[in-house]
Amino acid sequence: MDNILDQLYAGKLSPFEVPRSPDQEYESAATRFELAWTALMADPDPERQRLLLQLEEEHERLLGLLERDAFSQGFRLGGQLVAEVFR
To answer: Which helix (H) or strand (E) holds 3?
Structure first.
């Protein structure tokens, strides 16, 4: 079995593959989002649908950047905690 750093380097370890813990607040928000999205996409105006899809694309890009930053900060914090243990 490779150590964790080897797995991370080789792309065998991804935090996105770990299933989310069940969270009622998350599930409720996801349901409300899906209902709102469906209602907005039902708009017959193709220009508004195009803008909505563009909004979704940019939102996904922002979320990806935030997730990457949170991952980096968490990784650094973990390293600092380990370093503190060995002081």
So the answer is: none
* Percent over 90 (pLDDT), the chain: 41
Q: What dihedral angle (degrees, nearest 10) is formed by the CA atoms of 26, 31, 34, 38? A: -170
Q: How many domains does the chain have?
A: 1
Sign of CA dihedral 80, 81, 82, 87: positive
> What's the pTM?
0.64
Question: Does some domain include residue 65?
Answer: yes
What pLDDT shows up at residue 46?
A: 92
CB atoms within 10 A of CB 8: 14
